[in-house]
Specification:
The structure is a homodimer of 244-residue chains. Chain A has 244 residues and is mainly alpha-helical. Chain A contains nine helices and three strands; from the N terminus they run αβααββαααααα. Chain A has a three-stranded antiparallel beta sheet. In chain A, helix 7 packs across helix 9. Chain A binds a DNA duplex (30 and 30 nucleotides) through helix 2 and helix 3.
DNA sequence: TCAATGCAAGTGTGATCACAAATCAAATAA
DNA sequence: TTATTTGATTTGTGATCACACTTGCATTGA
């Protein structure tokens, strides 16, 4: 018995989970994704293959392939010089991203609202408590946890929409808007924003009652907020720079 | 003067277009894309790096990176065995793809309908003539030209929507539905379908009058047709296979 | 005859090297 | 001092190699 496929007749193999051989390239890719969505890289920052390979303690090979993948999903940008950077923020691009996210994530949540079972609803309902918890002990700006929790919440919903086509597109959109969002969340945090979870509560309520329209509306409000906030901030800076 | 950047002061350089150094990887990627959208690969077909490298007369390096990129945009599929294949067709996946295409391409054409100038409209209007031409001399099934013309027509419109976010997503969707479409077009051709350009005329008319809603409706009808056709065909086969 | 074993060919992954292009800095000339 | 040039370093790209895993086929055993 050296076959890799688990057979029902084998009582031992039945309890063993497949080990799943993750390649180095996959780890590099995941790591860069995480950094991008979390906004750890600044817009317009240039990334080099050898630099990342050193930082990730691997050779250049897995890095260059991971970069290539991120470039095709527009999470990174290939300059004509053949160097790669994280795309800069422009107002047009922000509007473009927001419109696409409203369109696609709105559709996904509308689908999910009619398909989530009580167990899944309980999961996202439980997450609301974590926001309360974070707000209670707001001694330090825990931006990282905020970002992660927000991501988990949204994708728990999107995953329930049951579309293997829409979900990767949403991931791509988050990858592209990650650097912007981070800036916005920092700005929120400085501006003393308090109730970041308000729309999330509305979303949970709407999904619990299978109200697709209200879920979509609340989602649109939720994802629009950081964009409009950042937009007004950028416009103010542009005006100031113009007058100076 | 050995600087590569064109300077305004140089009257010769001003007339020269940048030559654009395309890498081997880019050519491989484009070639595989073309093959995929055109449906040259069959669903479930397994692709090997060395096999493609031989066929494209290059080393394995550019091929493996191109394959990696195509896998991330779901144009190809990575099996747990680490071999890669073109994704098989299932009814669920077809419905999923069609819904996403209606959502996103519908939005793109609605945007384009309000933004295309008379020059762009004249371009797509001119393409209608090519369909008439093809229908006139229908001595052989020129599926390749049909596919190419259809693609050019649609993307001429999508390009005018002005969204740098939506267009790559539409390209990804075409990449994913390419293998299905080819099968459907062959089936159309066998079934003696005549007026493949009917909805295209409606689309041009709607755009010329800036009627976004009618343009969207006609587009939905246009892209739904091959899917519903293929769906009924697959269902018939499934039923036949079941009774046999 | 059929299933299990063992060997050989094929395949993906990662590392390393060679080369060309780009970038940066110091040196030189106006 | 400023602009240009020259040279050294850095960087991306492609080729090749080594290794591990998978697959397929022939051999061996019952």
């Amino acid at each position: 018995m050296q076959k890799a496929t688990a057979e029902k007749s084998d009582p031992i193999a039945a309890q063993l989970a497949p080990v799943g051989r993750e390649t180095v390239q996959d780890r590099v890719y995941s790591e860069l994704r995480r950094a991008l969505i979390g906004g750890l890289f600044e817009p317009s920052q240039i990334l080099t293959i050898r630099g990342l390979a050193d930082a990730l303690m691997t050779s250049t090979m897995p890095v260059r392939e991971a970069l290539g993948r991120l470039i095709t999903e527009k999470a990174l940008e290939a300059l004509p010089n053949r160097s790669v950077r994280v795309p800069p923020i422009t107002l047009d691009r922000m509007d473009d991203l927001l419109r696409a996210r409203i369109l696609i994530e709105g559709e996904a949540i509308a689908l999910a609202a009619t398909r989530m079972n009580s167990r899944q609803i309980a999961t996202i309902e439980g997450m609301l408590g974590e926001w309360d918890e974070m707000r209670a002990l707001k001694h330090k700006k825990d931006v990282d946890r905020e970002v992660t929790l927000n991501q988990t919440f949204h994708f728990e919903i999107y995953r329930a929409c049951g579309s293997a086509v829409l979900i990767p597109m949403i991931e791509s959109l988050w990858l592209q808007s990650g650097p912007c969002i981070r800036v916005a969340i920092y700005a929120f945090s400085e501006a003393g924003e308090v109730d970041t979870a308000h729309y999330h509560r509305t979303i949970v309520k709407a999904i619990a009652t299978q109200d697709a329209k209200e879920a979509r509306d609340a989602l649109v409000a939720d994802i629009s907020r950081p964009f409009t906030f950042l937009r007004s901030k950028l416009e103010a800076e542009a005006k100031k720079g113009l007058s100076a």
